[in-house]
# Entry
Amino acid sequence: MHDFAVSGGFQLSNLRLPHPNLDFLRFNRHEEHAGDANFTTIVSTPVVVDNLVFDEYIAGSSVAEIVAKLRREPDMVGAHEKAVSEYVKGQLDLMQYLEYYMHRPRYFIEQRHLLPLGERARTELIERYYAFDEPVMLEFLSRKLNSRARTYLPEVATRTGVPISSCKRQFENIKRIAKQSEDEEGVPLVNEIMEKFALPEPLAKKYAHILFLNINRVDTTKRCLTHFKLADFDFCASTLIRYWTTVSSTMTLDDIDEPLTQHAQQLKSLLIENKANSEQLFSSVRSHISTLIANPPATATASSNASYKISAQALLHILENRTGRGNTQLRAILRTSFSLVASIDTSSTLRDVLGIIVEKIVDSFASLGLRSEDMVLFYDTVGAEAAIMLADQLPDPAPSIQALNRTLTGTKLLGHRLFRQKPSLFGPLNKIRPV
# Structure
């Protein structure tokens, strides 16, 4: 028998499995005859899990829909509809039995006596059961994972076009993972999910990122964020966790790196609010970008070299006009970047972090006619020049330089992902930029 049994040719299976809470059936005493010997026996057919039926079951399809789909399969052509329907009903009985163990995945992986399935088959079943539809999970990001949220499932089903039974499965899955992981302390949530739910690392990371946004009430519903997809928010959560939380983050507000926020406040005072240092920093940035125009990076290809040159010239044009609006706006963007990280350990800032990135950083760059590539170059250049200044001015610059890199890199990556141009407004500005 293969590790993961799949129905090949047409095979009817009238499988009857006991409820998991019942070990065996026993005769009453008055039905036993003297001298009789009692035996407990189990008679079963080989367990056959049909891939297509399993996928349709967790997707919320009806029996009629599954039958219609099966009858279009090459090995089912010509099969009698009633026979196929009985086959599907037998499979659905098996699915309902399996679902009990899908809620207890670690037990399902470790037990060997209930179902003759190999470990790879069990792992694959669990992974597929805990897979989710991105539009559905996007709806759950902004909702509390409590019993009251179940009342919104019909609305979620209507908005996403996903059957309500599938929406319920996905809601119960994320709620179950959240409940079983909430009391753990000092253990990275990804590791905890992998251990308790036997999920592969990529899927465990997605759940961890969703829970980070949900637990900390990070707002993903603002108008400026409505056109982004779950993959964008997944990337943002990953960036927030990687750069602005502690190494053993359990995804709560308490795990925001407090020393980082303190360093970010000090960096803002030293590099932005100190006028002499601020002028020195922007002067160094101008010189650095001028050098890049004359001598692009050696690793750049011809096409990337041209794009790099365009970004450098666009930034230099703004920076050279020291009294212009653009120069002032770039300083304000840098101030916002440090202020954001300095206060990221407060619930209000963490809740609005993505809206702040879009409205105060991304849109500010876009209003100057700058692209996401220009923004990346700006942050990279500021980071390099600021690190040199810190090395010259501080007796122990290493912690501050590390905090500088984490602050600017996190902001840069979030901004780059959430960068949005408004062609009707900013397109003309891009056309008149110096090339």
The longest helix spans residues 81-102. Residues 1-24+43-121 form one domain.
